[in-house]
């Protein structure tokens, strides 16, 4: 069983961290047999695959690696650039998928419509580690360290996450940012000889996992909960991933707890898929939905809450995500 890391030579925000990671212990990495022409390197139970084109269109890399090597991929982590109109410097982490899209739609940045990959359990712990490393590398306050909502491809069945450098060309090529990202991988995977960060095991069964619903692309209210409670995080569906068609005023007034039955759109499918995949990524975990209530209109909140109740999906307030997770978060911080 292996962790598969994926980078591409066409993206400096991807290949620079990958190259830095290889340079930390050049004699400990061994080059393997190419996968469909792609170079790859191995160290312990970690495999680093170097693509030569776009990452988001390379579906099923987990299964392709297993067919190639006979090794089962337990998680897949991508190194990539983050693009934003603002162009602000940032280091981001996020789950992947386009669960809100219809089969007839074509995703602009890869993925399979209606599908979300299981979220890698390392997302929240690595966000905390990334903040710590960024401070040590003197990237803060210049760079913002943040989560992003679930979006884009590729399609993979293994628990997945992206770690990115943003948000414009000048920052994608920053070697100090690449060193920081490489350090997160080096420490987070225990390649430095230390304890891995964010590995979900039976010892974590019963701990709280946040399923974020609503908010903007950078999910600030969900981030606040994760940072303040030490909660794990699953999928994060921003408002654009919850397409909801507003019902008539009369329907909103009279539907009561059955309002969700009258609100069309793909939002229910997106929530079901994201909840199911989050459960799969955190076996034994207590997955609870957290609503960014202020970002939703009252009829949207009512519809979502009644739907969650019908689906038996628990809903948590910010303080509900603490408790069982506080010791784990503290141990992670002090184990480095």
UniProtKB/TrEMBL annotation:
Q: Which is a GO BP term held by this UniProt record?
A: D-amino acid catabolic process
User: What keywords appear on the UniProt entry?
Assistant: Hydrolase, Metal-binding, Zinc
Metal-binding as a keyword of this entry, yes or no, is yes
Record-linked InterPro entries: Deacylase_DtdA_archaea (IPR018033), DtdA (IPR007508)
Q: Name one GO molecular function term.
A: D-aminoacyl-tRNA deacylase activity
Instruction: Identify the SUPFAM superfamilies for this entry.
Output: AF0625-like (SSF142535)
In terms of PANTHER family, this protein maps to: D-AMINOACYL-TRNA DEACYLASE (PTHR34667:SF1)
Entry protein name:
D-aminoacyl-tRNA deacylase
Q: Which organism is it from?
A: Selaginella moellendorffii
Q: What is the lineage of its organism?
A: Eukaryota, Viridiplantae, Streptophyta, Embryophyta, Tracheophyta
């Amino acid at each position: 069983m292996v962790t598969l890391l994926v980078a591409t030579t066409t993206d400096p925000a991807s290949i620079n961290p990958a190259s830095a990671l290889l340079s930390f212990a050049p004699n400990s990495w061994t080059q393997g047999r190419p996968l469909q022409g792609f170079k790859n390197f191995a160290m312990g139970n970690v495999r680093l695959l170097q693509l030569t084109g776009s990452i988001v269109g390379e579906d099923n890399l987990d299964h392709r690696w297993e067919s190639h090597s006979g090794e089962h991929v337990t998680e897949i982590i991508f190194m990539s650039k983050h693009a934003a109109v603002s162009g602000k410097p940032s280091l981001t982490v996020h789950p992947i998928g386009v669960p809100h899209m219809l089969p007839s739609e074509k995703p602009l940045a890869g993925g399979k419509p209606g599908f979300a990959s299981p979220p890698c359990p390392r997302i929240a712990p690595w966000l905390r580690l990334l903040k710590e490393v960024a401070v040590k590398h003197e990237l803060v306050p210049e760079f913002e360290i943040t989560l992003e909502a679930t979006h884009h491809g590729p399609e993979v069945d293994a628990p997945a996450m992206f770690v990115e450098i943003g948000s414009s060309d000048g920052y994608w090529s920053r070697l100090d940012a690449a060193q920081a990202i490489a350090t997160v991988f080096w420490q987070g995977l225990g390649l430095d000889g230390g304890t891995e960060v964010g590995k979900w095991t039976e010892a974590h069964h019963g701990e709280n996992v946040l399923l974020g619903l609503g908010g903007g692309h950078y999910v600030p209210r969900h981030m606040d909960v994760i940072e303040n409670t030490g909660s794990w995080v699953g999928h994060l569906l921003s408002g654009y991933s919850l397409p909801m068609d507003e019902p008539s005023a009369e329907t909103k007034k009279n539907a009561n707890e059955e309002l969700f039955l009258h609100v069309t759109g793909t939002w229910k499918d997106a929530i079901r898929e994201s909840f199911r995949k989050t459960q799969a990524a955190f076996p034994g975990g207590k997955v609870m939905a957290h609503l960014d209530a202020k970002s939703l209109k009252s009829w949207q909140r009512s519809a979502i809450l009644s739907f969650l109740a019908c689906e038996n999906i628990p809903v948590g307030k910010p303080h509900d995500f603490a408790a069982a997770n506080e010791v784990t978060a503290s141990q992670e911080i002090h184990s480095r």
